[in-house]
From TrEMBL:
<keyword id="KW-0963">Cytoplasm</keyword>
<dbReference type="GO" id="GO:0000166">
    <property type="term" value="F:nucleotide binding"/>
</dbReference>
<comment type="function">
    <text>Specifically hydrolyzes 7-methylguanosine monophosphate (m(7)GMP) to 7-methylguanosine and inorganic phosphate. The specific activity for m(7)GMP may protect cells against undesired salvage of m(7)GMP and its incorporation into nucleic acids. Also has weak activity for CMP. UMP and purine nucleotides are poor substrates.</text>
</comment>
<keyword id="KW-0378">Hydrolase</keyword>
<keyword id="KW-0460">Magnesium</keyword>
<comment type="similarity">
    <text>Belongs to the pyrimidine 5'-nucleotidase family.</text>
</comment>
<dbReference type="GO" id="GO:0008253">
    <property type="term" value="F:5'-nucleotidase activity"/>
</dbReference>
<keyword id="KW-0546">Nucleotide metabolism</keyword>
<comment type="subunit">
    <text>Monomer.</text>
</comment>
<protein>
    <recommendedName>
        <fullName>5'-nucleotidase</fullName>
        <ecNumber>3.1.3.5</ecNumber>
    </recommendedName>
</protein>
<dbReference type="Pfam" id="PF05822">
    <property type="entry name" value="UMPH-1"/>
</dbReference>
<dbReference type="InterPro" id="IPR036412">
    <property type="entry name" value="HAD-like_sf"/>
</dbReference>
<dbReference type="GO" id="GO:0009117">
    <property type="term" value="P:nucleotide metabolic process"/>
</dbReference>
<dbReference type="GO" id="GO:0005737">
    <property type="term" value="C:cytoplasm"/>
</dbReference>
<keyword id="KW-0479">Metal-binding</keyword>
<dbReference type="InterPro" id="IPR006434">
    <property type="entry name" value="Pyrimidine_nucleotidase_eu"/>
</dbReference>
<dbReference type="InterPro" id="IPR023214">
    <property type="entry name" value="HAD_sf"/>
</dbReference>
Length: 302
């Protein structure tokens, strides 16, 4: 018991914060110990992007998702902005409705993403304007993001970013924050531009909040960098993110961290029952960084 108390209070004091909720503390401790003993060479990190690696809000104002960043006069007109907002107001409450099952939400999410992508294609978005749209946006990664990306790079731990957002915009956000590093792999919805650099379609299978399992099974298995790494640290802000590790063959330990950003009281119970660790209205990477620091340190490794 002594060493477990020590883990929480001394090695990872961040886990004692009142914004951190856990259903089974002992299971979390055991998983972290097992991962630490196996070391950085056995670890991979799989993370959602919007509202997980990016902030949910800043100074009381929502931070834009990769789709929201496209809501810029450089790229789309006022009518498109209005229609996208109406779609958000219709479908986002469904996405986060704790009383509906993932099965109920699934066709409605396909409907939402498909309608948004159709609107964007109609706007004939130009590839060369994306960087400026990101620069002009208020997109923000969570506090402590640089420590997170840098530690993973130093320890040669692959980071798989699995996003239902727009891959081209996501890449631009991390590039402008100087963390698009060689160990970063991205699965997302990518735009397909014609020879003149105008958006004409979206590539491949649509990825939305509740079909990440299919994407995980079809993509992750093909990424050689992830092979032979049976320990997974998974970060997400939606219950749909829990399936992102389904492509990991022969996994040994999976530790899931859920960011509960919105409708806290309505969703708290389902998050605590689903994620190993739940972070309530926490706009930082403090807890993932503390866990990574512990797992990748060689101290006490047997």
């Amino acid at each position: 018991m002594h060493c477990k108390t020590k883990l929480f209070s001394v090695q990872i004091p961040e886990l004692a914060k009142c914004s951190v909720l856990m259903r089974e503390r002992s299971r979390v401790e055991e998983t972290i110990y097992a991962m630490q003993r196996a070391g950085a060479g056995s670890l991979q990190v799989i993370s959602d992007f919007d509202m997980t690696l990016t902030r949910f809000a800043h100074n009381g104002k929502r931070v834009p998702t990769t789709h929201n960043i496209l809501d810029n006069q450089l790229l789309i007109d006022e009518d498109c902005t209005k229609k996208m907002r109406e779609l958000l107001n219709t479908y986002y409450p469904i996405e986060i409705d704790a009383s509906r099952t993932a099965e109920e939400k699934l066709p409605l999410m396909v409907e939402w993403w498909t309608k948004v992508h159709e609107l964007l294609i109609q706007q004939r978005i130009r590839k060369d304007m994306l960087a400026q749209a990101v620069r002009e946006s208020s997109a923000m990664l969570r506090d402590g993001y640089k420590v997170f990306f840098d530690r993973l790079t130093e320890q040669q731990v692959p980071l798989l970013i699995f996003s239902a957002g727009v891959g081209d915009v996501l890449e631009e956000v991390i590039r402008q924050n100087h963390v698009f590093l060689p160990n970063v792999h991205i699965i997302s919805n990518y735009m397909d531009f014609d020879q003149t650099g105008v958006l004409r379609a979206f590539k491949g299978q649509l990825i939305h909040t509740f079909n990440k399992r299919e994407g995980a099974l079809s993509h992750a298995a093909g990424l050689r960098a992830l092979q032979g790494r049976p320990n997974v640290l998974l970060l997400g802000d939606s219950l749909g993110d829990l399936t992102m590790a389904d492509g990991v063959s022969e996994h040994q330990n999976i530790l899931t961290i859920g960011f509960l950003n919105d409708q806290v009281e309505e969703r708290k119970e389902s998050y605590i029952n689903s994620f190993d660790i739940v972070l309530v209205k926490d706009e930082t990477m403090d807890v993932p960084n503390a866990i990574l620091r512990y797992i990748t340190s060689s101290r006490d490794r047997k």
